[in-house]
Amino acid sequence: MRRALDITEIARQHYALVYRFCARRIGVEAAADAAQETFVTAQGALRRYRGDSTLRTWLLGIAHNECRRVSRNRNLQPPPIELIDAVGEHRTESLVIDRHSLTEALNKLSDEHRDVVLMHEVDGLSYEEIARVLEVPSGTVKSRLHHALLNLRRSLQEGGER
Amino acid sequence: MNVMEDLKAYLDGELSPEKMKRVDAALQDDPKLRRELEELRVLSRLIGDCVVDVEPLGLERTLAAVGRRKRFSFDLVRHGWVVAAACSLIIAAVVTTDQSRSQDEAVATADLGSVALNDSAKRPAEVGASGEINAPATKAAQLDKAEAPARSGFQAMGGIDVRLRKHANTSPRLGEDVSGSPVVPKPATPGFPQQIIRTGDMGLRVADVRKAQGAITNLAKSVGGFIESSNSSADENNLPQASVTMRVPEKRFEDVLNRLRSLGEVKSETLSGEDVTAQVADTEARLRVMRAEEDQYVTLLKSARKIGEILSVKERLSSVREEIESLDAQRKALRNQAAYSTITVSLTQTKVAGEPPAAGSWFDEAWASAVNRGSAFGRWLARVGLNLVAFAPVWVPIVLAAWWLSRRKRVS
Q: Which candidate, B196, B136, B184, places its Cα nearest to that of B161?
């Protein structure tokens, strides 16, 4: 089983996920370096990987640590979240959501909330997977997501009222 | 339970079935909650669909980096035993080479000492007829280190050349180097038969000194030799001991030595040879000159007429004859010494002959043997320890590097 784990193959399969994960935290300029370092570290630690978590969770955990290290060393801030152009206007009973308001609301989120929102909504990670990557209990993930969406709705409501 | 807090988890299917039912029930009863849920669904879908996915860059570079690392990586921790084995081999090779070299040097030094000692005894004999002097220092200097390893069969004790034979049948011939290359001195006088005085001293431990004395006497007779002297005494433990000096024909010297060795345990053995060829040749030459002089004086005596002349010639003749006799005796003595080699055998006895072994002696022997082995093991351990300390500059950096690398990997 362990012999089947070839780092080159793993890199081919998961590079895009890891790169985007890094790019959303430290920017595209530093993302390639961080992603490379993630796979080099994973290569050294591969024999210690026991399959307790999925491979992508394990890789994202390494990438998360690498991004923290890079942002600390190079004093990097997360880049603003951008949305595609084709976002139309969406209305609910209390909210009017368009590209501009949603972008603004997302960029107002704290780093913790932003992380869980992007990991869950964009990367499609489950609560349990996010908990493993961030090394926090899954209840914390659930709570952060709840509060993150609460904050988003508040921001959107405030934007709509203006 | 705060249903509002569970709405997002409900939407994501991350609640337990029990909680899902509760939220379901709450949703049916509360239209506001349904609106909240709808807002969350719209928002989540929008975020998931609309956040820009950047195009990943640098995959090839990463693949190259891991490929390079894969080719050249050597896991020091995983293959620690390989590193340890290689280090042990290197250290063992270095230590063994070093020890054998130091042993060789020690033996060579001891041999140089013994050769110098022998040479100082032989010094008069090595002043040949040609006047060539083989100084001890010259001979000692000829012993280069290349000869040294072959000398390990000898042990130098107390600066005296005590060469303990380990194997009787590999005994070096007299005047022969242990390495096998003969070091018989070249005849000082070409064409003159070589004359060597061979002497041997042997310490033998035998079961019965009296019987051994008898055997040595018979041995001397059987080879056409004789016993020059023999004396017996008792040591401080009242055990008999004896010293027998035998003279045996030079040609049977080696044979006699071999037979002596079979009589008991050889404790010590010293062989030496003194080349007296030059001395014999010199004596004979002077003898010829003196005889010619004697003949001349006899002729003169016959033709002498005056009393004064007769007395004067007779006086000279008698002094020449005295000298001739002296030289002749000297020549005979040398020839005799060369023809009959001298072997002095010192006999000692371990216990009184015929006495039964003391009760418990096996225990003492076993105990002594065990103590000896224990101390030998202790010395070996000490040697290993000292070698480890001495080679610390070699292995300590390797161990530290391995430790540092493994630690670095763990941390990463």
A: B136
Q: Buried b vs exposed e over B267-292: b needs ≥16 C-beta within 10 Å?
A: ebbbbebbbbbbbbbbbbebbeebee
The predicted-structure confidence for A11-27, as pLDDT tens digits, reads as follows 999 999 999 999 988 99
Q: In the prediction, which pLDDT does B3 show?
A: 83
Candidates A4, A37, A44; CA nearest to B78 is: A44
- Identify the band that residue A2 occupies on the pLDDT scale cut at 50, 70 and 90: very low
Give tens-digit pLDDT for B229-268: 888 888 777 788 899 999 999 888 888 998 888 888 888 8
ipTM confidence: 0.87
Position A108, amino acid: K
By Cβ distance, the residue of B46, B51, B67 closest to A97 is B46
CB contact under 8 A, B65 and A40: yes
List residues bridging with A91 in a β-sheet.
A96
> Among all residues of chain A, which has the CA nearest to that of B412?
A41
3-state secondary structure B373-402: HHHHHHHHHHHHHHHHHHCHHHHHHHHHHH
- Other CB atoms within 10 Å distance of the CB of residue A23: 24
**How far is A133 from A58, CA to CA, in rounded Å?**
7
Q: Comparing C-alpha atoms, which of A152, A12, A134 is closest to residue A83?
A: A152
Tell whether A118 is within 8 A of chain B (Cβ).
yes
Chain B, window 56-75: residues with a beta carbon less than 8 angstroms from a chain A beta carbon: 56-59, 61-63, 65-67, 69-70, 73, 75
Q: Do A92 and B8 touch (CB under 8 A)?
A: no
